[in-house]
Specification:
The complex is a heterodimer of chains A (544) and B (347). With 544 residues, chain A is mainly alpha-helical. Chain A contains 24 helices and 2 strands. Chain B is built from 8 helices and 21 strands. Classes of the chains: A mainly alpha (544), B alpha+beta (347).
Chain lengths: 544, 347
């Protein structure tokens, strides 16, 4: 009897957490289906179609360009031997640490009329004015596609490379014996076998590309993300913002459906053999150097050059950039990130422990519900969080009015909104990281502990927590890093006069003065490198 | 009075009946082996005894304390049961002595240390108290696991396929070792395995499980020579079925002649089948005219003699030859069925 009671307590707790974290999405769906709002009608009549088209083009463009960059590089580093292969294998992941708005800023600075590239060209050819020559404009949709693809391709690179490594070498060797050249083998064996991985990678990239706010905003390319932002901050219409968010949810949903659909028969083919660490093709002479060159070009364009420029800014403008503001913003970001890490870890621990001991039906649902927030673009999430919080604030104010109290925007206008939004968004990261650690604990340890007279809570404390220590640290770190980098939600939800490192840097990007925030920018890049270290280490554990 | 009594236990998972009408008795200090093919419900039974899962119905008492009945369910941590797992389930973050002390909930520090040392001596791991599980060999880990399960003097010990991860060369040595330890501690035990060799070596009594219940419980010899069902007969060793008619209490007529039994049945003139194990069959030379239509399919040398694969009544079997005759493949032969305790199953 006792066990039943305490189990249902855990169940209640897990479901409460799940429902709490899915509340914003629920409100958003409800609101976006409400009757017309004037603002939305106006947008619908005028620019909404353009915005939607731009968003779709952006997704498509980034997806395609990422394929062009990532697939050959993944195949080269997975199967071929050439100078620098081992280093490129991890170095080509580095661009993931680069926020898109930083790379966009750096390239704008380099490539616009007053930038070094055009100046050099003018000097070279003796041109006098813009009328004398044509030069592409980077601040366009195409420019945005290139910028975003340059930092997102590593997702596809990583996923496809892993898939190639897990494919049976024997299949590729068999295709060789049957007379296929390496290129033919790539096209006819590796590519079709890796289809599931490729689709998964593109899906991830599409979701990130759709969520991008900073680059398109900086390039003044109007997409649905910027529309959500402008509708809220320009018209203060939550309903219209919710409706635009609804369109993005629809695109998101379709993307995920396509992914699921294309993967429906995949499980059978993949993971049928042990992982390979040797290489198949030893490239020689020109081919080897061409492979190295291709990797180098991508790495320089996507990471080394932008970081180099940032370092140059930081050195030249050290006095201006190294100031009190930097420390106070870093400290504010740090505080928020720590609180969010602790909260997500606590919540995910409770939910996962329930999953583990659950004997009721559907133990996985609370965790799934709680994890949905991760798929929401930052701007959409911000609107979704504001919907319930503003209503709560209204209710609170109405209720307290008779007592002569008016707390104001106690929830929606304070750090609470930002922290809640971050928890909703990053819960999934903590959950995922901890779940894998939890699964590594053999269930018989629980039974052993129980048979030796320990109840659920004692088992959690004496067996699980000590064994989860590393998992908790990793999860906390990953959430912390994401919080430090998060921009769009912070822009919409930060309290008055509150800046995080990211909003501070973005402010200076928008003001064309990134030089002055270059140290903060470098710190964001540096923080972003930390998770890559983990990814790389786990890859090495698996493959060596 | 039995130490563990289970009556009419039922459990289903996702609508499939895993256990139904399962009854089992374990006497004081007895080691009972639940033996059966995978999926027959052995481990489920063990988990139900431990209280890790809750049966739909059934009565269960341990040491005269009712732990399961309608309206009664005692939580696993209150049953005082020791359990040994297939993967040993040693806590990787605790030393050997901390692992052994984990279940000593009510003792003082001094008492704990004494008990841990006592257990370490019992399992011959005196020097290993401060080591961690990953620093031990498989056999050592297993001895820690048994020490941990016995340290708090459980009223019942459960063992879930504890020997399946041990190399075959040392397995039976270890089985003897663990049996000695359990016997020294005077504790009743239920042991689960799918290997009849392990069961023969480890248990006092076997209980063959089939279809969610106990098909037969008894000593190894009893189950082997007097199985009460085809399932038990087949599980404990190979053999063939021959159509037979009971002529008298000790004689059965088959197509290969009359088979006489060393014990008396009571099946006069009943049709049925007898189950004959290979060591009761001998191959003889077929003289002209009395060939039974049997030929040698394959010949295999096993060190001291040959065994021959033949097809008897549609069932293939490897048997030895009378007086170590040597036959060649495709040679016609006949068989002789020696008098033995005949297992007769009526139609």
């Amino acid at each position: 009897m006792h066990v039943k009671f305490s189990l249902s307590r855990w169940q209640l707790l897990a479901w409460l957490i799940g429902l709490l974290l899915v509340t914003p999405l629920g409100f958003l769906l409800f609101e976006s289906l409400q009757g017309d709002s004037d603002v939305f009608q106006h947008l619908f009549d005028t620019v909404l179609w353009d915005y939607t088209r731009n968003t779709l083009l952006l997704i498509l463009g980034v997806g395609l360009l990422s394929c062009v960059i990532a697939l050959p590089l993944a195949w080269l580093t997975a199967y071929c031997d050439f100078p620098g292969r081992k280093q490129f294998e991890w170095a080509l992941m580095l661009p993931l640490a680069m926020p898109t708005y930083l790379i966009a800023y750096v390239y704008t600075d380099l490539l616009d009329y007053a930038g070094p590239v055009q100046i050099a060209l003018r000097e070279w050819f003796g041109w006098q004015s813009p009328d004398d020559y044509w030069f592409f404009d980077i601040r366009t949709l195409t420019g945005a596609i290139v910028m975003i693809a340059l930092v997102l391709y590593p997702y596809l690179f990583l996923i496809f490379k892993t898939a190639l490594r897990e494919q049976s070498f024997k299949l590729v060797q068999a295709s060789q014996l049957m007379g296929l050249s390496p290129t033919q083998s790539f096209l006819r064996v590796s590519l079709p076998l890796g289809r599931g991985a490729i689709v998964a990678g593109i899906t991830l990239i599409s979701m990130e590309a759709m969520a991008d706010f900073a680059t398109v905003n900086y390039f003044a390319v109007s997409t649905l993300t910027t529309a959500v932002y402008d509708t809220w901050l320009g018209y203060y219409s939550l309903t219209a913002a919710a409706k635009i968010s609804g369109i993005m949810l629809l695109i998101l949903f379709l993307t995920i459906m396509v992914e699921r659909f294309s993967r429906r028969n995949q499980a059978v083919y993949e993971r049928q053999s042990s992982v390979n660490s040797a290489t198949l093709y030893r490239l020689k002479g020109g081919a080897a150097w061409a492979a190295s060159l291709a990797c180098t070009v991508v790495l320089v364009l996507a990471f080394i050059l932008p970081v180099g420029v940032l370092v140059k800014y930081a050195v030249v403008y050290a006095d201006e950039a190294w100031n009190g503001a930097f420390f106070s913003y870093a400290w504010q970001s740090f505080k928020v990130a720590i609180v969010v890490s602790l909260v997500t870890i606590l919540l995910s621990l409770l939910v996962l422990f329930y999953q583990r001991i659950a004997k009721h039906a559907y133990p996985l649902i609370p965790g799934r519900l709680a994890s949905t927030g991760y798929a929401l673009p930052g701007t959409v999430l911000a609107i979704a969080v504001l919907l319930p919080l503003t209503q709560l604030d209204d209710a609170l104010n109405n209720w307290l009015e008779p007592f002569g109290l008016s707390p104001g925007l106690l929830l929606s206008g304070t750090l609470f909104a930002m922290i809640f939004a971050y928890v909703v968004r990053f819960y999934a990261i903590a959950h995922g990281a901890l779940e894998s650690s939890f699964l590594r604990i053999s269930p018989s340890l629980d039974m052993a502990s129980q048979s030796m007279g320990k109840g659920p809570l004692q088992t959690l404390r004496k067996v699980h927590l000590p064994l989860l220590k590393r998992g908790i640290l990793t999860a906390g770190l990953l959430v912390f890093i994401e919080c430090m980098k998060e921009l769009p939600a912070a822009l919409l939800l930060r309290p008055f006069n509150f800046e995080t490192l990211a909003t501070h840097v973005f402010q200076y990007v928008s003001d064309e003065q990134l030089e002055l925030a270059s140290i903060s920018a470098l710190l964001i890049v540096l923080v972003g490198l930390i998770p890559l270290y983990f990814v790389n280490r786990s890859m090495e554990q698996n493959y060596s | 009075m039995s130490h563990l009594v289970i009556k009419d236990l039922a459990y289903q998972y996702n609508g499939t009946k895993v256990l139904s009408g399962l009854s089992l008795n374990v006497k004081q200090d007895e080691i009972v082996c639940l033996l059966g093919a995978s999926g027959c419900g052995k481990t489920t039974t063990l988990k139900a005894i431990a209280g890790i899962l809750q049966p739909e119905q059934g009565y269960m008492s341990i040491d005269s304390n009712i732990v399961n009945d309608s309206g009664v369910f005692v939580a696993p941590q209150k049953r005082n049961i020791g359990m040994m797992f297939q993967d040993y389930a040693l806590f990787p973050h605790l030393t050997v002595s901390d692992n052994i002390a984990f279940g000593l909930n009510t003792m003082s520090k001094e008492q704990k240390r004494e008990r841990v040392n006592e257990m370490l001596t019992l399992v011959k791991l005196d020097g290993c108290a401060k080591r961690y599980p990953h620093q031990l060999s498989g056999g050592q880990q297993q001895r820690v696991a048994i020490a941990r399960a016995l340290a708090y003097k459980p009223s019942l010990l459960l063992l879930d396929e504890p020997f399946s991860n041990i190399d075959t060369q040392v397995r039976f040595e270890l089985i003897a070792d663990i049996r000695r330890i359990i016997k020294a501690q005077k504790v009743s035990a239920v042991f689960v395995t799918h290997s009849k060799e392990e069961a023969f070596a480890f248990a006092d009594t076997l209980a063959v499980m089939h279809g969610g219940k106990i098909a037969q419980q008894g000593s190894a010899e009893q189950l082997f020579s007097q199985p009460n069902s085809k399932v038990v007969a087949e599980f404990l060793g190979t053999g063939i079925y021959l159509t037979a008619k009971a002529l008298t209490a000790t004689e059965y007529e088959t197509v290969f002649g009359v088979v006489s039994s060393t014990n008396a049945g009571n099946h006069d003139c009943v049709q049925g089948q007898i189950y004959v194990r290979p060591h009761h069959i001998q191959l003889c030379k077929a003289e002209n005219g009395d060939a039974q239509g049997l030929t040698i399919l394959q010949r295999r040398f096993i060190g001291t003699r040959y065994v021959y694969r033949i097809n008897i009544a549609g069932q293939e079997l490897e048997v030895a030859a009378e007086q170590d005759h040597v036959f060649s493949v495709e040679q016609p032969v006949k068989i002789k069925i020696m008098p033995h305790t005949v297992n007769f199953f009526r139609d």
